[in-house]
């Protein structure tokens, strides 16, 4: 199942190029290089889900980096402290020191130039009550210009990970948090001559719409409509500043971009810029700070993987839309198993017909139609491994609902499998197929 990750904003300068490692299961080693004035390079040894170790390295090695080794998997990094400052011949700030702390109470040496542990520059710290740091992002070129981290927060009941991007902007105002939804359908923005004063979001939640309002409406209001189901917000670019006639630092401009290449801009692009976005993800909620205007803004993004074709038997298929349930299943057989699948999904008050998967044979096809109030809770069946292939042929399928169990379609032979998630229902499917079905997997979402 998915997890929720918190992405903390960068600390440091604005030079160099941006990089983002994303999230991993943990870290084994950190290497840090330095010269007389700054951190010049950093290298991470990450551990992926199935134990594979990958290395990511940034900056320029000026001398042999020093290493800090963790006792993975029992030990993990819980805090990163450091400093950033301007140094000779460099126009922007760079990272000048780093210290790592772990779940076992260990602390790394102070990396970077220091005299008896004393460092110069603006200090920063990434930490949240002992939560595990599982990835880094930053900026670098000849040195490490800026650094940020990913923290793992909670396990989710949704199948895909969600990223909570830290709110950026001013420090004043009351904290608000809309949480997560299926997506955003409408954005309404209010502004005055200096700032963004008001935000109103119409979110999609299953078959319903929920509205959240923040700030003060003011006089000038504009609206941006998203063609939800076929379009989603991919990023939000913003600026923040402290207009001279106001006490607080506030959001001064917003630019929303969508998966269809559309954009809408509001306010006045004045002050420091930041971007809320996560590669391969759609925006599913906002959080921030508010008062007489919008002081700060952060967002939630949900990552949904897209099947990538590989040079093996069977083409990948995926009905990855955000649906509320399954209305009809069409299943066709051939002599050795399942040859055809097609699904009709429930979306709000309407129905969406999925693509054909596989091919109908002379044996024909049968339909399973779910009643009103009926939903899929699980599936089972048999499969038969294919020599030399990383997957199998589907021999048979049976579906379970909250009201009944269907017959077994196909052969009662091979290796049996069964899948079900407590408190969740099946709302979509993905798999592999050519003229027959090689694999089929359900997508679960919580029962509302």
UniProtKB/TrEMBL annotation:
<comment type="similarity">
    <text>Belongs to the jacalin lectin family.</text>
</comment>
<feature type="domain" description="Jacalin-type lectin">
    <location>
        <begin position="162"/>
        <end position="303"/>
    </location>
</feature>
<dbReference type="InterPro" id="IPR036404">
    <property type="entry name" value="Jacalin-like_lectin_dom_sf"/>
</dbReference>
<dbReference type="InterPro" id="IPR001229">
    <property type="entry name" value="Jacalin-like_lectin_dom"/>
</dbReference>
<keyword id="KW-0430">Lectin</keyword>
<feature type="domain" description="Jacalin-type lectin">
    <location>
        <begin position="307"/>
        <end position="446"/>
    </location>
</feature>
<dbReference type="GO" id="GO:0030246">
    <property type="term" value="F:carbohydrate binding"/>
</dbReference>
<feature type="domain" description="Jacalin-type lectin">
    <location>
        <begin position="5"/>
        <end position="153"/>
    </location>
</feature>
<dbReference type="InterPro" id="IPR033734">
    <property type="entry name" value="Jacalin-like_lectin_dom_plant"/>
</dbReference>
<protein>
    <recommendedName>
        <fullName>Jacalin-type lectin domain-containing protein</fullName>
    </recommendedName>
</protein>
<dbReference type="Pfam" id="PF01419">
    <property type="entry name" value="Jacalin"/>
</dbReference>
């Amino acid at each position: 199942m998915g997890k929720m990750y918190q992405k903390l904003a960068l600390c440091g300068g604005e030079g160099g190029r941006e990089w983002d490692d994303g999230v991993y299961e943990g870290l084994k080693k950190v290497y840090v290089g330095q010269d007389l004035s700054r951190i010049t390079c950093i290298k991470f040894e990450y551990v992926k889900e199935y134990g594979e170790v990958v290395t990511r390295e940034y900056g320029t090695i000026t001398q042999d980096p020093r290493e800090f080794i963790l006792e993975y998997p029992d030990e993990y990094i819980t805090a990163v402290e450091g400093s950033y400052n301007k140094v000779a011949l460099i126009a922007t700030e760079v990272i000048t020191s780093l210290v790592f702390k772990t779940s076992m109470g260990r602390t790394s040496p102070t990396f970077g130039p220091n005299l008896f542990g004393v460092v110069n520059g603006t200090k920063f710290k990434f930490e949240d009550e002992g939560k595990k740091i599982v990835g880094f992002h930053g900026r670098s070129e000849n040195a490490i210009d800026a650094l940020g981290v990913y923290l793992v927060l909670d396990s989710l009941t949704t199948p895909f990970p969600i990223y909570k991007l830290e709110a950026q902007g001013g420090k004043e105002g009351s904290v608000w948090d809309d949480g997560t939804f299926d997506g955003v359908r409408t954005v309404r923005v209010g502004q005055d001559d200096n700032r963004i004063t008001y935000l109103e979001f119409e979110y999609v939640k299953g078959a319903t719409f929920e509205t959240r309002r923040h700030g003060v409406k003011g006089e000038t209001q504009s609206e941006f409509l998203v063609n939800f189901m076929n379009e989603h917000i991919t990023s939000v670019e913003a600026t923040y500043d402290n207009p001279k006639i106001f006490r607080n630092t506030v959001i001064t401009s917003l630019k929303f971009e969508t998966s269809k290449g559309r954009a809408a801009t509001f306010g006045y692009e004045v002050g420091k810029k930041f971007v809320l976005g996560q590669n391969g993800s759609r925006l599913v909620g906002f959080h921030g700070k508010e008062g007489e205007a919008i002081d700060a803004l952060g967002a939630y993004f949900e990552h949904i993987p897209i099947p990538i074709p590989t040079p093996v038997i069977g083409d990948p298929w995926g009905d990855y839309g955000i649906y509320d349930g399954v209305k009809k299943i069409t299943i066709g057989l051939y002599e050795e198993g399942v040859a055809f699948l097609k699904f009709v999904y429930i979306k709000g008050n309407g129905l969406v017909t999925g693509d054909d998967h596989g091919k109908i044979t002379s044996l024909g096809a049968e339909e399973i139609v779910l009643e009103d109030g009926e939903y899929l809770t699980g599936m089972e069946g048999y499969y038969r491994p294919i020599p030399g292939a990383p997957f199998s042929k589907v021999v048979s399928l049976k579906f379970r609902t909250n009201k009944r169990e269907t017959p077994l379609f196909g052969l009662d032979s091979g290796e049996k499998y069964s899948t079900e998630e407590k408190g969740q229902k099946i709302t979509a499917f993905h798999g592999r197929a050519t003229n027959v079905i090689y694999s089929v997997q359900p997508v679960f979402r919580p029962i509302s």
